[in-house]
Amino acid sequence: MPDASRTAVGVAALRAAHLLCDAPPPILNDVVAIQLIDPDSRARLEGPSAAEHLAKVEAIRVHVVVRSRFAEDCLEAAFERGVRQYVILGAGLDTFAWRQPVWAKALRIFEVDRGGSQQDKQERVARAGLQTPANLVYVPVDFEAEPLDECLRGAGVDLRAPVFFSWLGVTPYLEEAAIDGVLRVVARGAPGSEVVFTFAPAGDTPSAVAAMAAALGEVFRSYFTPAQLDAKLRGLGFAEVFFLTPAEAAARYFANRGAGLAAPRRVSIVRARV
To answer: Which of 41, 113, 154, 237 could disulfide-link 37, Cβ–Cβ 3.0 to 4.6 Å?
Structure first.
């Protein structure tokens, strides 16, 4: 698939590796990712050199599972406040729709991504013998070429009602103008609308995530400091802005893990509510 995301496949393999190889309890209990990765990828995770490889990508693996867990925790809190629409921007091989808890059955879930990536995902889902959940809608969008709000309305998203957006592992690959365009759509939403997204921290040496993406031909194009993002988000009209710090991540997700994975060392996840 020419425009299917190679990093999306790598991210799914990292989520699978967390469940297969890291000591319990899992930060993200993604039992579906393993069904979507290629047989060769699974063989590498279960092969004799798996431990050495996984040690090299521990920081990336931690970032991937923490960002998804945090977004899903925030989604559950939004659901408790009455939000019933979940938009996953740049969904890639996200698996929430296939492992959604009972409460999420009342959600309408919209997966937004490039058409090629969505086709690749649907083929993987079919090969795994998984059924498409009744509350899931695929929405093909090019963030840098199409108006997001029009695409969402066309797919059935009611922007007059609150919407929860997750946008994980996408903004670094976009120019700032495209990022601003998406954030404006969220900021113009109904009160209670919210977005959780990741960003590439500025003023630091290139991260392992950036290096991995570049090796796959997907280069980072935007970087921000938390202060820059805070100013941007509040300037766009968001009423609440919260950055997941390493200390907060450690308290939430690593306190009872004992030895093993280390908490993130960088601030790269933010939640903003209208």
So the answer is: 41
